[in-house]
Amino acid sequence: MSTMITSQDVLPYGEFLNEEHHAIREMVRDFATKEIAPKAAEVDREAKFPIETFKKLGQLDLLGLVVDPNYGGAGADYRSYVIAVEEIARACGSTGLSYAAHCSLGTNPIYLFGNEQQKQKYLPKLCSGEWLGCWALTEPGTGSDAAAQKTTAKRQGDDYILNGTKQFITNATHAQEAIIMAMTDPAAGKKGISAFVVDEGTPGFYVSKVEKKMGMRGSPTASLTMEDCKISKDQRLGEENDGYKQALITLEGGRLSIAALAVGISQAAFDAALSYANQREAFGQSIGKFQFIQGYLADMSTQLTAARLLLYHAAWLKDHGKRVTLEGSQAKLYASEVSSKVTNLAVQIHGGYGYVEDFPAERFLRDAKLCEIGEGTSEIQRLVIARQLGL
After folding, report:
1. What are phi and psi of 221, to 5 degrees?
2. Is residue 375 annotated as part of the catalytic site, yes or no?
3. What span, in angstroms and rounded, lies between the C-alpha atoms of 391 and 58?
4. Are strands 133-136 and 177-183 parallel, antiparallel or unpaired?
5. CA 193 to CA 205: how far, in whole Å?
6. Close Cβ partners of 1 (under 8 Å, ≥ 6 residues apart)
């Protein structure tokens, strides 16, 4: 008798991952420890995008983990991908965010929805690290309302003319291609949205504003503007007016990215807090001997483990061909809010040292907040979950 995989299946932790997953974790962790973590403070302090790190990530086949080897990818599963995000974010939140945005937003839609010509053109460059990608959905004044697109794409013979502005676009300043969501049939609302791949240097397409941020400073966030930007119909991704459906599928995977990002940052904060609690002495003993500190660390460890299990469960379901609208939102919501709690407690455990740049605790706290906002705010995740429950 066959066993049906449902969204209610809860597996023992060990069954989520196999030897290949553990090998990928070991490889990514080794690279992140040696190459990413030593630069994390500088990347944050100078708001410096670590371009050389991305070249090396491409050489390790990590930029195209889930992409078919025929297009330059590694052909791995989604559990491998969230493990990679987690380990990179543990070393540097900024690098983890840009990595996730490149893979799940700038690359995966082309892999999922592109035609053969588009895949051959873009994917090898994106997987190798020659090119960086980004995805542009959010607009000024629309925020979480993904259907309220003001950017337009008007058909003109064999071309489209794009006009509009996108805001809060991760990697926009360094990307060689951007996936732009635009209205091709404004009267149809969300059923009139299409997706287009626009190359850097296209006339009428440019970066219009670079944001200065509280955290994730080494991951560039900027606005993209299109002014009578002419592109060929061959740059449309999928069928006309399929953009909103594509966006929902993209965001579903992107929420796992942010959950993994949050888990990685939480792990780094917990590691730092535990180490500090064992070393710092007060009143003749290490502060880890005090019940308050023990309670904090116990809560941090428990919540972190629960967040990771939600993430791996959702990734496991995705690898088994299931939609994870509910599970992805649950993982993203819980992991992101846990990350803010864990990083806040890490600062508290460090005391005054947690508030200064000499220790990384304050960076973890600043970086974690983005996870409650990006890829759909916590409020949006609760709405998605409620709808999936039939409310």
Report:
1. -125, 130
2. yes
3. 43
4. parallel
5. 19
6. none
Q: Show the DSSP H helices in the chain as ranges.
A: 13-16, 19-31, 40-45, 51-59, 78-91, 93-100, 108-113, 116-128, 243-279, 291-319, 325-350, 361-369, 378-388
Residue appearing with tokens 């710092």: 280
Q: Residue 198 region, left (φ>0) first, then alpha (ψ -120 to 50), else beta?
A: beta
* pLDDT per residue as tens digits for the range 80-116: 999 999 999 999 999 999 999 999 999 999 999 999 9
Taking each helix axis from N to C terminus, what angle separates 243-279 and 361-369, rounded to the nearest 10 degrees? Answer: 160
Determine the Cα–Cα distance for residues 221 and 211; give it in Å rounded to an integer. 6
pTM tops 0.85:
yes
| Closest by CA position to 138, among listed 183, 175, 180, 108 | 180
Read off the amino acid at residue 269.
A
The pLDDT of residue 13 is 52
Which one is catalytic: 35, 252, 362, 375? 375
- In order of their start, the domains of the chain are 13-132 (1.10.540.10), 135-243 (2.40.110.10), 247-388 (1.20.140.10)
The position carrying tokens 């998605």 is: 384
